Design the sequence.
């Protein structure tokens, strides 16, 4: 039995005005422990909804889901939300936002702060304004705070909904590398939504291509690039061999 | 900022001077600002009006404080528990729609004619506003933030204290701001119509009933200034406490 088992998941939303819309159509997916799976699909197809289902945050109509043979609510799950800004607590300074995920630990507040500062410095982001409030920070800085809150939590399952969308080119690459490094250490199982195919290929073991709403799995692509991944791989022959068929299929999907 | 505030005051005083000195409104009903300020000066140096000021302020603040405690407590419960909300919705909306003044006779029966009834009226009126805003605040907690708490396995108590209450705080403070203004208004009205030994409302009522218009308007000015400063104080505290609001 796989670590995460998603079986025949169907999900519709009922809207007060225009009846109900189906968002997930019989989604089946299995993730092994420590696997890094990226999800790729058009806007509004149901990617975020799927992550919410996996996190146990949304009810579904049909099917079943288990993580390590248990309910999702019993697993240690980290979630970087797509609307990261709304996921931060504006009344807490950035450092306390990050510390929110360390609440159950025995450390004193001082120790937690110390750990967070060290962590951020190690990543080479000493300039991140940890002592400011989120509303005093740029979108990209807020997204980094939301990201670090989950990484420092060391979850068994890490759900990431476009976690680098607001980062500049350079930070995006550094954070991709940082994510891979931290994943190698923690061996979290990762489900990662991205609209950047290059990013998805660079990071993942597998890429799931979803259809237009209601989301069905169109195809699953194995990414057999060697690890550790190097950013130079993005310019190599093997990379394009992987990318071209996925893009072609994606164009077919959206033209339907 | 300072400049425009000053010019607003000057315009107000000029219009007042103009309509009274030209006889547009008889000075019998509205004295000139000069006469009113003269009277105000006398009332202040004799401490007479200060005594009334503190009496009104004290009752307003005590009533407001009680109203806030009640409004926030019930509002938090109503905001979170749907069944309790549904049970209470009708009585709350019913009493909220009745002007407090219309209930004066009832309040007198319950509380007599002393300080209690006036404090109660201020508490009653402000609690309604604070209650409604608290309910609204709790109901508007961002779903994403609740999801964060849920994925972090926060207990109900922790979620309530660390996520829901801070989320509702900007709404609650808006309730405080409106509630305090309202408390002052009903306090003055209560003093005018329920009879009182002290207070600005009582002074306005007594002065105008013997046609001491300078004194009546001098007191009205004090009420206006008091309201202005109370409001400014809440806004100041609001800006400190819910610094993230609106950003
Ligand atoms: N709470 C809700 N109530 C009703 N409809 C919803 C709700 N949440 C999402 N939807 C609808 O479900 C569909 C899928 O939404 P979802 O957020 O999962 O899309 P997505 O794949 O994450 O899109 P994007 O790439 O733009 O983030 C959308 O068409 C959306 O309108
Ligand atoms: Mg989405």
Sequence:
């Amino acid at each position: 039995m796989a670590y995460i088992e998603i079986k025949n998941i169907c999900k519709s939303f009922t809207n007060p005005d225009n009846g109900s819309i189906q968002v997930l159509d019989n989604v089946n997916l299995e993730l092994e422990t420590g696997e890094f799976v990226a999800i790729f699909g058009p806007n509004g197809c149901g990617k975020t909804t799927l992550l919410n289902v996996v996190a146990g945050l949304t009810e579904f109509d049909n099917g079943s889901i288990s993580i390590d043979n248990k309910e999702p609510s019993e697993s240690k799950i980290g979630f970087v939300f797509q609307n990261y800004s709304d996921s931060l607590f504006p009344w807490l300074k950035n450092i306390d936002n990050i510390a929110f995920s360390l609440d159950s630990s025995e450390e004193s507040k001082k120790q937690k702060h110390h750990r967070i500062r060290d962590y951020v410095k190690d990543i080479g982001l000493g300039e991140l304004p940890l002592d400011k409030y989120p509303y005093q920070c740029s979108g990209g800085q807020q997204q980094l705070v939301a990201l670090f809150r989950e990484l420092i939590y060391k979850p068994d399952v890490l759900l990431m909904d476009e976690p680098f969308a607001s980062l500049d080119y350079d930070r995006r690459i550094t954070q991709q590398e940082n994510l891979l490094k931290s994943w190698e250490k923690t061996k979290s199982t990762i489900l990662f939504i991205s609209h950047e195919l290059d990013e998805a290929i660079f990071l993942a073991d597998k890429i799931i291509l979803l259809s237009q709403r209601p989301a069905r799995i169109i195809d699953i692509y194995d990414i057999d690039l060697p690890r550790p991944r190097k950013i130079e791989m993005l310019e190599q022959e093997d990379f394009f061999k992987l990318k071209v068929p996925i893009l072609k299929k994606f164009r077919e999907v959206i033209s339907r | 900022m300072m400049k425009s505030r000053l010019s607003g005051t000057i315009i107000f005083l000029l219009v007042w001077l103009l309509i009274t000195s030209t006889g547009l409104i008889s000075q019998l009903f509205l004295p000139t600002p000069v006469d009113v300020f003269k009277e105000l000066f006398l009332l202040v140096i004799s401490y007479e009006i200060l005594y009334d000021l503190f009496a009104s302020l004290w009752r307003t603040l005590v009533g407001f404080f009680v109203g806030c405690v009640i409004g926030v407590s019930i509002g938090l419960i109503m905001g979170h528990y749907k069944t309790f909300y549904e049970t209470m919705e009708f009585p709350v909306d019913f009493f909220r729609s009745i002007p407090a003044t219309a209930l004066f006779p009832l309040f007198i029966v319950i509380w007599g004619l002393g300080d209690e009834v006036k404090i109660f009226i201020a508490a009653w009126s402000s609690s309604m506003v604070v209650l409604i805003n608290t309910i609204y605040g709790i109901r508007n907690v961002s779903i994403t933030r609740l999801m964060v708490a849920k994925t972090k396995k926060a207990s109900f108590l922790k979620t309530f204290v660390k996520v829901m209450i801070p989320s509702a705080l900007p709404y609650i403070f808006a309730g405080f701001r409106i509630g305090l203004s309202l408390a002052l208004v009903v306090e003055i009205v209560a003093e005018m119509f329920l009879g009182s030994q002290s207070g600005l409302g009582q002074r306005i009522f007594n002065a105008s009933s013997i046609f001491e218009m300078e004194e009546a308007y001098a007191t009205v000015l004090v009420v206006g200034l008091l309201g202005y400063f109370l409001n400014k104080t809440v806004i100041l505290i609001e800006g400190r406490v819910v610094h993230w609001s609106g950003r």
Observations:
- Residues 133 and 237 of chain A are 45 Å apart (CA to CA).
- The mean pLDDT of chain A is 93.
- The longest strand of chain A covers residues 20-31.
